[in-house]
């Protein structure tokens, strides 16, 4: 695919690059997005209604099973050319931060090192009350209709992810904001740009004078405010950008 010369030049000259990714970057690995076509458990339940503390309160086993299903899906998935291109870009730029909203861990598996997982990682489990990590060999089974329990306090266990209405880790959001505000080029890849605070990072970058680039086959609220839009799947656009 054709990449605008100005964009290629800006990336070559960039001292600092910040990338924000969303579910679309993993779509070509077979991991469903949140707001696109539905497969598997997505057919019957709205993912946006399951990713809430209210859903966990009302039906903890359903939410636990949904994440167990996704964990399995992700375990079997492989990073795609978009993940690999971003890992390669990190090696070419003096300062590079990859901020992801994804909880699938595929960026690290592709070799990216400087990764900020804004919404957590579904590979880890925490106690819903204490918020401390619990490893699988410590899980206390609680029957078929409830999630496993914390070995220390007996509360339900839950995935270590950020649901709607929950606050993000201060450390992670500060790191992401500093990277966005300090970069020369900001790439927004495969995100619908509607969930905050992640969706605000592009405007922070633009305010500081960064070139803002969107990679997404569909229009989003960020499209009109971007300096360049690559209307293509990330697995096509990112390798073309990096080569
Ligand atoms: C491709 C492609 C291909 C397809 N290549 N692209 C300010 C204003 C208004 C509201 C708020 C605000 N601040 C906070 C809020 C409330 C709320 C919020 O933002 N709501 C909006 C929906 C309005 N935010 C929060 O609650 C956050 N907490 C917070 O801010 O705390 C303080 C606070 C609380 C309450 C009120 C005010 C302040 C927490 C947000 C946590 C989001 N959690 C989830 C679940 C994570 C765990 C899990 O994975 O299960 O995060 S929800 C879900 O959305 C998930 C995603 O990370 C996130 C973003 O979705 P994403 O990645 O963009 O995916 P999609 O599916 O939406 O888009 C995919 C895109 O890919 C599409 O555009 C496709 O076109 C594209 N695509 N194939 C490239 N091959």
Automatic annotation (TrEMBL):
The keyword Signal does not apply. GO terms for molecular function: histone deacetylase activity, NAD-dependent; NAD+ binding; protein-malonyllysine demalonylase activity; protein-succinyllysine desuccinylase activity; zinc ion binding. Its cofactor is Zn(2+). Its EC number is 2.3.1.286. It is an enzyme of class 2 (transferase). InterPro entries: DHS-like_NAD/FAD-binding_dom, NAD-dep_sirtuin_deacylases, Sirtuin, Sirtuin_cat_small_dom_sf, Sirtuin_class_III, Ssirtuin_cat_dom. Binds 1 zinc ion per subunit. One of its GO terms (cellular component) is cytoplasm. It catalyses: N(6)-succinyl-L-lysyl-[protein] + NAD(+) + H2O = 2''-O-succinyl-ADP-D-ribose + nicotinamide + L-lysyl-[protein]; N(6)-acetyl-L-lysyl-[protein] + NAD(+) + H2O = 2''-O-acetyl-ADP-D-ribose + nicotinamide + L-lysyl-[protein]. Keywords: Acyltransferase, Cytoplasm, Metal-binding, NAD, Transferase, Zinc. HAMAP family: Sirtuin_ClassIII. Belongs to the sirtuin family. Class III subfamily. NAD-dependent lysine deacetylase and desuccinylase that specifically removes acetyl and succinyl groups on target proteins. Modulates the activities of several proteins which are inactive in their acylated form. 2 residues (Tyr-67 and Arg-70) present in a large hydrophobic pocket are probably involved in substrate specificity. They are important for desuccinylation activity, but dispensable for deacetylation activity. This is NAD-dependent protein deacylase. It comes from Rubrobacter radiotolerans. The lineage of its organism: Bacteria, Bacillati, Actinomycetota, Rubrobacteria, Rubrobacterales.
């Amino acid at each position: 695919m054709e990449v605008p010369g100005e964009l290629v030049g800006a990336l070559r000259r960039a001292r600092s690059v910040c990338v924000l990714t969303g579910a679309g970057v993993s779509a070509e690995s077979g991991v469903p997005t949140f707001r696109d076509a539905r497969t598997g458990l997505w057919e019957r339940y709205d993912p946006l209604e399951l990713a809430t503390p209210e859903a966990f309160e009302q039906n903890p086993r359903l939410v636990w099973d949904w994440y167990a299903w996704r964990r399995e899906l992700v375990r079997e998935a492989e990073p795609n050319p978009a993940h690999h291109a971003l890992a390669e870009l990190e090696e070419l730029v003096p300062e590079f931060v990859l901020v992801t909203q994804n909880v699938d861990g595929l960026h690290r598996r592709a070799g990216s090192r400087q990764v900020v997982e804004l919404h957590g990682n579904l590979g880890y489990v925490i106690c819903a009350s204490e918020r401390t990590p619990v490893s699988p060999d410590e899980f206390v089974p609680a029957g078929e209709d409830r999630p496993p329990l914390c070995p220390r306090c007996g509360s339900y266990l839950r995935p270590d992810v950020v649901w709607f209405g929950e606050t993000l880790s201060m450390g992670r959001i500060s790191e992401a904001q500093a990277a966005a505000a300090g970069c020369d080029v900001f790439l927004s890849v495969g995100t619908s740009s509607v969930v905050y605070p992640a969706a605000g990072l592009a405007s922070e970058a633009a305010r500081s004078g960064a070139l803002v680039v969107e990679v997404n086959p569909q229009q989003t609220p960020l499209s009109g405010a971007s300096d360049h839009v690559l209307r293509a799947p990330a697995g096509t656009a990112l390798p073309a950008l990096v080569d």
